[in-house]
Amino acid sequence: MTEVKEPKILIVDDAREIREPLGVYLRRHGLRTRLAANVGEARRALSEEPVHLVLLDVMMPGEDGLSLCRELAADRRLPVILLTARTRQEDRVTGLELGADDYVSKPFDPRELLARIRAVLRRAPPKKRDLILMRRSFGGLIHDPDRRCVILADGNSIDLTSGENRLLGLLLDQPGQVQSRARLLDLLHGREARAYDRTVDNTISRLRHKIEQDPKHPVLIVTEWGGGYRLAAEVEALP
């Protein structure tokens, strides 16, 4: 019988007094851990063994955590929770827009962090990368979620960020139906991120600038005032 292993968490923080006790705490609660003191060590760890989630400090000497977050969101579809002493809402929104799944401010309660880890793992289980990667056409465009791009009628493509890719996929799942900001935010980042509901609006704005003929007068992703957003086009699954 194949042994079922608990999820492995990579903790990336230059402060030993944070990463080592946190590693001990998570192991006591049934998770496996690996520790890294900087982005370089984190990359080596990721190349050596698979992990299920990365706890990533933002402010570290040398290369900061946001650059690794961007890389992970783009290349690995690996869940990331950012850890940082920064408390400004703009910093939190930046991290979420780069593709982070959650954002926890220091100092943090390890019990709350554990709950957030479990919540993110529930939303992004190990088989997340095997979920629907179907190409779909809409409004004369094609969404290719695996390549994270939109293909135009002339064959050229427009790259999407991880957040844009996921949000467009959610809208394509229910064409013609109004999806509230709160629901979209729950699906993208979980209820913990609800305070930062500008994330959805900002991502919608970027999507419109990429796929709409006139972003100021959108016809594909329309706003339902007081409701949310709606994909106003027929969607067809492609082989």
From TrEMBL:
SMART domains: REC, Trans_reg_C. It comes from Paracoccus aurantius. SUPFAM superfamilies: C-terminal effector domain of the bipartite response regulators, CheY-like. Pfam families: Response_reg (PF00072), Trans_reg_C (PF00486). The keyword Transcription applies. Residues 8-121 form the Response regulatory domain. Residues 133-233 form the OmpR/PhoB-type domain. InterPro entries: CheY-like_superfamily, OmpR/PhoB-type_DNA-bd, Sig_transdc_resp-reg_C-effctor, Sig_transdc_resp-reg_receiver, WalR-like, WH-like_DNA-bd_sf. It comes from the Bacteria. Residues 133-233 bind DNA. Keywords: DNA-binding, Phosphoprotein, Transcription, Transcription regulation, Two-component regulatory system. The modification 4-aspartylphosphate is found at residue 57. This is Response regulator transcription factor.
